[in-house]
Write a structure and sequence with these properties.
Pfam family, one: rve_3
Shape: flat
Number of strands: 0
Number of helices: 3
InterPro entries: Integrase_cat-core, RNaseH-like_sf, Transposase_IS3/IS150/IS904
Order of helices and strands: HHH
Structural class: mainly alpha
Helix content: 55-70%
Protein name: Integrase catalytic domain-containing protein
GO biological process, one term: DNA integration
Number of domains: 1
Largest sheet: none
Radius of gyration: 18 Å
Distance between the termini: 37 Å
Strand content: under 5%
Length: about 80
C-alpha cells in the first residue's frame, strides 16, 4: 500500500484500510486469538492471499470476486485479439 500524504483532516484516505481490517477481524480471525506470532502470520497470510484476494466478493468489482473479474478481463482480451 502507498502512504497517503493528503491534507490534514481528510478522513476518506484511511477508509479502505479500515474496511480491510474490519473484514479480517470479522471474517477470519478467531475469537480466541492465536497462540503464537507464527500461527497468526500463517492464518492472516492465508486470508489475504488465499481468500480475500481471490474469492471474496468486493463492492469495487460489482460484487464479484477478484478471480472472476480477472478471468472476465482476460476473456475480453482474447476476443479483442481475435478481431484484429
Amino acid at each position: 500500500m502507498i502512504q497517503s500524504l493528503s491534507r490534514r483532516g481528510n478522513c476518506w484516505d484511511n477508509s479502505p484500510v479500515e474496511r480491510f481490517f474490519r473484514s479480517l477481524k470479522t471474517e477470519w480471525v478467531s475469537e480466541i486469538g492465536y497462540r503464537t506470532y507464527e500461527e497468526a502470520k500463517y492464518h492472516i497470510t492465508e486470508y489475504i492471499i488465499g481468500y480475500y484476494s481471490q474469492f471474496r466478493p468486493h463492492t469495487h468489482n460489482d460484487g464479484l470476486a477478484p478471480r472472476v473479474v480477472e478471468q472476465q478481463y482476460w476473456n475480453a482480451q482474447k476476443t479483442v485479439a481475435k478481431m484484429i
